[in-house]
């Protein structure tokens, strides 16, 4: 678990990374005096909202980079390369709210039959990753809360995010992972 101060630092780091990249075309470095916990490898997502609407969201679901470095990288990509949106402009940044989600390592949910997923997933606590063949989709824990989904709607929407049918979670060969996150926002 990160402290509130560490979370605030990550949000400021994400904003600074985006603003510097948009105005100067440069990628900032991780500050040398960053706390040791922020040098640990963790999954991270940066979500950008404008007037309460999604404007960009990109991340590393797996702990593949040091956290502070991961936040810098995904913040820039969320602002410039999310395929769902045009690139954010420097003048738009004063209307953007930055949110950083720090993820636990995803864990495979073990079940004997698909109906058991309904007992093992908790809306508001768990994020989900669906994998089937080459298809993969992820939804952060806050998404079903924001949309007021129940567990079945959460599963269906995670499947659709992967480009699969809404009921793919009932099929053999599906892998479903859960993770938790700490959310820090402006």
Describe the structure.
- This protein is 30% helix and 25% strand.
- The protein is an alpha+beta fold and 186 residues long.
- The chain has two domains: 4-103, Glycoprotein, Type 4 Pilin; 107-180, Hypothetical protein ph0010, domain 2 (Dna Ligase, domain 1, 2-Layer Sandwich), CATH 3.30.1490.150.
- It has a four-stranded antiparallel beta sheet with strand order 2-1-3-8, with helices on one face. The protein has a four-stranded antiparallel beta sheet with strand order 4-7-5-6.
- A hairpin with a 2-residue loop joins strand 5 (127-132) and strand 6.
- Helix 1 crosses helix 2.
- The longest helix has 21 residues, at 4-24.
Order of helices and strands: HEEHEEHEEHHEE
The CATH superfamily of the largest domain bears the name: Hypothetical protein ph0010, domain 1
Shape: globular
Structural class assignment: alpha+beta
Look at the structure and give the CATH class of the largest domain.
Alpha Beta
- Radius of gyration computed on alpha carbons: 17 Å
> Number of domains in the coordinates?
2
Oligomeric form of this entry?
single chain
At CATH level 2, the architecture of the largest domain is 2-Layer Sandwich
Fraction of residues in helices?
A: 25-40%
Question: Total strand count, please?
Answer: 8
What is the topology, as strand order, of the major beta sheet? 2-1-3-8
| Average of per-residue pLDDT values | 97
| Low confidence ranges | none
The CATH topology of the largest domain comes to: Glycoprotein, Type 4 Pilin
């Amino acid at each position: 678990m990160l402290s509130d101060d560490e979370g605030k630092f990550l949000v400021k780091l994400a904003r600074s990374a985006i603003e510097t990249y948009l105005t100067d075309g440069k990628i900032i470095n991780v500050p040398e005096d960053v706390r040791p916990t922020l040098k640990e490898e963790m999954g991270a997502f940066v979500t950008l909202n404008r007037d309460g609407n999604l404007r960009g969201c990109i991340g590393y679901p797996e702990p593949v980079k040091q956290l502070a470095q991961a936040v810098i990288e995904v913040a820039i990509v969320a602002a410039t390369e999310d395929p769902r949106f045009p690139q954010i402009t420097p003048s738009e940044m004063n209307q953007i709210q930055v949110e950083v989600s720090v993820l636990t390592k995803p864990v495979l949910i073990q079940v004997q039959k698909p109906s058991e997923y309904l007992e093992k997933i908790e809306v508001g606590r768990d994020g989900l990753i669906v994998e089937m063949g080459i298809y993969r989709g992820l939804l952060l824990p806050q998404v079903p809360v924001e949309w007021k989904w129940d567990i079945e709607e959460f599963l269906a929407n995670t499947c659709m995010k992967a480009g699969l049918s809404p009921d793919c979670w009932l099929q053999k060969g599906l892998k479903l992972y859960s993770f938790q996150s700490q959310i820090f926002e402006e």
